[in-house]
Amino acid sequence: MVCLFLADGFEEVEALTVVDVLRRAGVAVRTVSIMKDLTVMGDHGVAVIADELFENADFSRCEMIVLPGGSPGTKRLLAHEGLKSAIAEFAAADKRLAAICAAPMILARMGLLKGKKATVYDSLREELAEADYRKEDVVVDGKIITSRGPGTAMAFAFALAGILAGEEVADRVHSDMLLR
Asked: How many CA atoms lie within 13 A of 50 on its CB side?
């Protein structure tokens, strides 16, 4: 199972593309609100009803944390101590962490990208000063997967699908969605 975290101001295309592609690939995805309510407002005014609130979430079956970007949303994720604790536990247990757009900044500020190949939204490049920065759409370094922004959301989602469901399944979903 994958847990994708939502905070007011999240980037809709980054979050919902991942949820959609992974569910098409047969991967269980739970959207988790770090807000006080299940309804989370995206950066562009799209309201999404999360599957569960952070305080009710069970991470014991979760094999990957996914962090969408969006400037206000990323700042809220970064400020959430419970989420940072979960991320630290995942890193310590060598579980997968994935972040797109501004969200790799969270991993960088937690010291998890030091010496790792990673990418981030172009204007936040300095946040990855301790990482081996790559200006690539999706970067995989061990159990850490990062991506650059809204325009790379589909590539990010399919990279995650390939990792979690296998390349054959990801290729089938890619074909079924009529992507070239």
From this structure: 27
- Tally Cβ neighbours within 10 Å of residue 64: 21
CATH number at residue 167: 3.40.50.880
Helix (H) or strand (E) holding 163: helix 153-165
Active site residue 101: yes
pLDDT tens profile 39-71: 999 999 999 999 999 999 999 999 999 999 998
Parent domain of 154: 2-171
Residue pair 7/103 in contact by the 8 Å Cβ criterion: no
pTM of the model as a whole? 0.97
Domain count within the chain: 1
Cβ count within 10 A of residue 137: 17
State the catalytic residue, choosing from 7, 86, 101, 113.
101
